[in-house]
Write a structure and sequence with these properties.
Layout lengths: L1 H20 L4 H5 L3 H30 L5 H16 L7 H11 L4 H32 L3 H24 L9 H36 L3 H31 L6 H15 L10 H11 L15 H27 L10
């Protein structure tokens, strides 16, 4: 966990570069106003809370009322700390698997719930990002639209393909990779391959057992709607910050801007998409190259972007860390499995 704590100050480096490059002062950020800033924080927490409710809904549908919906939501929101402090926002699902396993559920079943949770989020977010990318291309923003579409389509396709193909095919570690791991890992490598292949086989079996049932399809649809709702809150977060800075950006444009930024931030270049997300918003709203640091003066002001990033990334990091320690990493009571 220590290296993740190191990731937090590391993620501020792009923010510091932007601040120096465009001569942004503290008073410029504070000029946004306390209430718009707090509204953006609340909108972001609304996004995380909807994700927590979705996780609670999925868990209770598959495992029953093992915990209150509030605690299940707290576990999910806490796991977001891991996603905030890794490139491409991955890792939170492993916290969910760990927590469910410690509650007494088999790793394969815990993994199935975590995968269902992340796949619905990826499909919902990917769909909105693809729309944003198409709109960018239609408005002549070739670089922005191309990067958003390439990232969104790639990530979404991989997750969707693996998820739905698991109902027809049993995935295993590729033969070439298995040979290398066994060669260099010796006995431990062989054990690792066997356990991983068994885990993947069990998940594929669960896919075949669950995805074809009416109940599973219903859970999938409702989970997808939870994800759409969570991304809507994300769009609201930028709209209220913009309003505080004197920009009248409607909800749809705000949603498209943050979804484009989310897609660009998924590039595994910086921790938590730091720097990429900021330039993504500016580039989308102003039809610019997201990798061009020479942003003209008549674009959306940088104090707006910095305030939004603090409200939707740095403040939630502290909140999710507290919830991670309180719920996901706290003492647990094993649930008996019938």
């Amino acid at each position: 966990m220590n290296w993740r704590l190191l990731a937090i100050p590391t993620s501020t480096i792009p923010l510091i570069i932007i601040t120096i490059q465009f001569d942004i002062k503290a008073e410029d950020v504070f000029a946004i106003g306390l209430f718009p800033f707090l509204a953006a924080v609340l909108a972001m927490m609304g996004k995380l809370f909807m994700q927590g409710l979705k996780f609670g809904y999925i868990v209770r549908k598959y495992f029953g009322p093992i915990e209150s919906i509030w605690k299940l939501s707290g576990v999910k929101v806490g796991s977001e700390f891991i996603r905030f402090t890794t490139p491409m926002f991955v890792g939170g699902e492993f916290v969910l698997i760990y927590w469910l396993h410690k509650k007494g559920f088999p790793t394969s079943k815990a993994s199935w719930v975590a995968i269902l949770e992340i796949v619905t989020d990826v499909i919902a977010g990917g769909s909105l990002s693809i729309i944003a990318g198409v709109l960018a291309l239609l408005h002549g923003a070739i670089v922005v639209g191309g990067v958003v579409l390439a990232t969104s389509i790639t990530v979404t396709t991989i997750w969707v393909a693996l998820f739905f193909l698991s109902t027809k095919k049993t995935f295993q570690i590729p033969t070439g990779l298995s040979i290398l791991i066994k060669k260099f890992g010796k006995e431990k490598g062989v054990n690792y391959i066997q356990r991983t292949n068994q885990w993947m086989e069990e998940i594929c079996i669960m896919s075949r057992e669950n995805l074809r049932s009416h109940q599973a399809k219903k859970i999938f649809v409702y989970s997808f709607l939870f994800s759409i709702a969570s991304w809507i809150f994300y769009g609201i977060s930028f709209m209220v910050i913009a309003y505080g800075a004197g920009y009248l950006i409607d909800f749809f444009d705000s949603l498209m801007a943050v979804m484009a930024a989310n897609a660009i931030g998924n590039l595994p270049i910086t921790v938590g998409g730091s720097g990429l997300a900021e330039f993504g918003v500016v580039a989308y709203l102003n039809n610019l190259d997201p990798f061009n640091f020479e942003v003209t003066e008549d674009t959306v002001e940088w104090n707006l972007i910095i305030a939004w990033r603090i409200a939707t990334y740095y403040v939630p990091i502290g909140i999710t860390w507290l919830l991670l320690v309180k719920f996901a990493l706290s003492k647990y009571t094993k649930t008996s499995i019938s």
